[in-house]
Amino acid sequence: MTAWEEAWNARDAEALAALYHDDAVNHQVAFGAPRVGRDTMRADFRECFAAFPDSFTRVEVTLIDGDRAAVEWFGGATWAGPFAGRASTGATFTLRGCGFFLITGGKIKAQRGYFDRATWFGQLGLPVG
């Protein structure tokens, strides 16, 4: 989980993707359908960091039980590139959320994340729906 936080804060899509199995599943519930596969996640991370190049996350709580981990995080960024089909506005946001991970063989096999999309999009001036 430390490596995940460090890779996110370095905004290093390659290092972050390398933490996942080839067929890992990432389900960010606020976005709908799960994303499947390391390559898909790498592309998602690149897109996120292009839109929010100063993105940061601070893990505030980590719970580990065998091959499962849960984190509570606080993060934020400035909207500086295309996102959600729209041009950037320079708006900033902060957000809290949590993530649940299944780790096998030293890599993330599954991830499920929860955050309030209305809070995030509201700060960016985007429609929630």
TrEMBL record:
Q: Report what the protein is called.
A: SgcJ/EcaC family oxidoreductase
Note the superkingdom of the native organism: Bacteria
Q: Which InterPro entries match?
A: Cyclase_SnoaL-like, NTF2-like_dom_sf, Steroid_delta5-4_isomerase
